[in-house]
Amino acid sequence: MLKEIVKVRNNILIIQIIGITLLLSCGEVGYDEKRTEDLICKEIELISGVYRKGEISSGEVKWYYYNVPESGSYNIYWDDFFEGSGSYTCDIKVSAYQEDKKTSYYEEFNSGFTNSQNLLLNKNGRVYIKVDGYYRESCSGSYAIMIKPSTHQKRYWTVMIYGDGDNDLEEFLLIDIRQMKNGYMNGQGMDVIVIIDRIEGYSHDYSVLNSNFSDTRLYKIANRNVARISGGSDFPEITKDSNYEANMGDAETLRKFVKSCKTNYPAEHYALIIWNHGGGVRSRGGNRDNRHYKAVCWDDTNENDCLYTAEITDVLTGNESVDLLGFDACFMGSVEVAYQYRRGNGGFNADVMVASPALEWGQGWDYENIFKRIRSSSGKNGETGTVTGASEQYYNSASLTAIQLGGIIVEEQYDSSVSAMNQVLSCYDLKKVENVKKAVDTMARSIYAAKEKDDFENVRGESYSQSTMHYFNIANDIEWSVSPFFDLFDLCEMTTSRSGFNNEIQHNASMVMDAVDEMIIYSFGGSEFMGFVNGKNGISIFFPDGDRLFDGYRHWEFQWWYNSIDTDYWWSPDSNNGNRYYGKLGWCIDDAIVANRNVENWFEMLDAWFDYTEMSWPFEYGTYPYGGLNGYEW
User: Which of 246, 593, 602, 626 could cross-link to 444 by cystine, CB 3.0-4.6 Å?
Assistant: First the structure.
């Protein structure tokens, strides 16, 4: 049969057969100009590494597909040529879809003449790529498009999410991972790796990770997609098809995760975000309730094991150190936690820390908008930066610093939670925390020497109406014994204004304020925290009422874990008092000599005030063991 292809215009294929012109609608399909002898309305197959050239007019749509041979990372490349009719070439938009041709891998992308987009694809799947012609009502032009496996792209950041969903927060963790998928932009020189441990009985969601499971798995985040990955030689228990149940409350699990990420996804910079319940320098034990408090890191399947502050530095080494350490958890924004992970501590450390000194709401951070602000092009996003004091910026991962990343996290959390009134988040420079400790210890020595215990406790307060800024329910006896966290800057500011203190105490308190101001890079506090000053308030210190009674016992007896010694070792001879974790806090250890009867740091001031059961020198054993209530002799 004689046939002649006249043209393809606006998706109408015009074929002339023996003088009769037929108009056949191709719908949303393309055509292969190199095989005009077989031209029919169809989707065009892309061959790996081979450019397909085409022509397109405004309003026209063409489809391509690629059969994926192996799971992995692939790049789509396209060029929008300066060729075509009229005064302008016809620009194109390129988008990619899963096999249903409806679920997109990324938002529609304007070419800007030449561009590329990275995809994570599964083996034996098919990806559909749509090319849209646009710009003006009447224009046409040529373009070329190609797909091929990604060659090694330089990675500037690897963000590691330690997601413990093995508890009542599983649903919120899945929501956050969905946000990560929505906000992450492919091909930006940044990898986001998530370890997630799930549990039966809470969420049955299948859509976020393409599976409902109760074991522990590793995923690499992509735009609107995830790829299940293995842990490699550093974490061999986790493979692409394993059902391994990890104990997220064991610091060895954290160490293996970080080591695996650094081996398999090396980058110039690393961020580690620990996601779960939080309880400050010590987890909250059985005092959680249904308000979705966070603790680091409770694993219900593994006998409620959790990560203690000093356990992390006991197990992780300097090799696992990161540029930014984030706690998407409650109560972790304390000076004791910050000091534990400071640079120069001889082990695991970080330059910058992001954490909240207060309760954090269950949904955690705004990951979608955090990751949307990291892209290959910089510039302003049109919003005012209330927290950082400048217009909010997009950041190129190649030049992104840990401080800038911390600023993004705090800023986006402010934007998403400002109406909540009770949220706080801060970004700390951990290189400055040693100066804070020196200033606090100097102030503690002067207060103890002047015998100002009563006046200093009055500054701290016992009721809402007269206390310094605090991050717990001050009317609750249990919270006084577990989490008496007070704002350090506000505590010292109130001390400087109290006339009863001598000049030395007031001067030393002002030096603490200066050091805290230097350490806090960014912070915000909701309206519930009256008088909160961004960049000054936002870090807590442990200041208990140790003499206060609860069930007939003084609070300091419940607070044995706030300590410099290995508390489990001290308690272990008594079979009824085992498992007394953890102590070994650098904040309590440094700048103090045991049992010399001199108060030398903040911890020793508290111990001297509240543990008067300790034996006087020379030591004799009686009702209380050496060290009194907590095993430490100041």
Answer: 602
Taking the C-alpha atoms of residue 427 and residue 406, their distance in angstroms, rounded to an integer, is 6
Residue identified by tokens 């990955």 is: 229
| Sites in the chain below the pLDDT cut of 70 | 1-42, 81-90, 106-114, 123, 135-138, 151-153, 280-295, 377-378, 382, 463-466, 569-579, 614-626
Whole-number Å distance between alpha carbons of 271 and 350:
9
CB distance 326 to 352 below 8 Å = no
Contact yes or no for 215/242 (Cβ under 8 A): yes
Task: Please pick, among 26, 139, 297, 330, the residue that the annotation labels catalytic.
Answer: 330
Give φ, ψ of 448 to 5 degrees.
Answer: -65, -45
Number of domains within the chain: 3
What is the pTM (predicted TM-score) of this model? 0.78
The answer as to whether 468 is a domain residue is: no
306: nearest Cα among 243, 253, 380, 229: 253
DSSP 235: B
Last residue of one domain, picked from the residues 121, 149, 177: 149
The verdict on whether 297 is a catalytic residue reads no
Assess whether 289 and 161 both reside in one domain.
yes
In angstroms and rounded to an integer, the radius of gyration of the C-alpha atoms of the chain is 30
Q: What is the bridge-based pairing of β-strands 216-222 and 540-542? A: unpaired
Residues in the chain: 634
Question: Which of 122, 149, 176 corresponds to the end of one domain?
Answer: 149
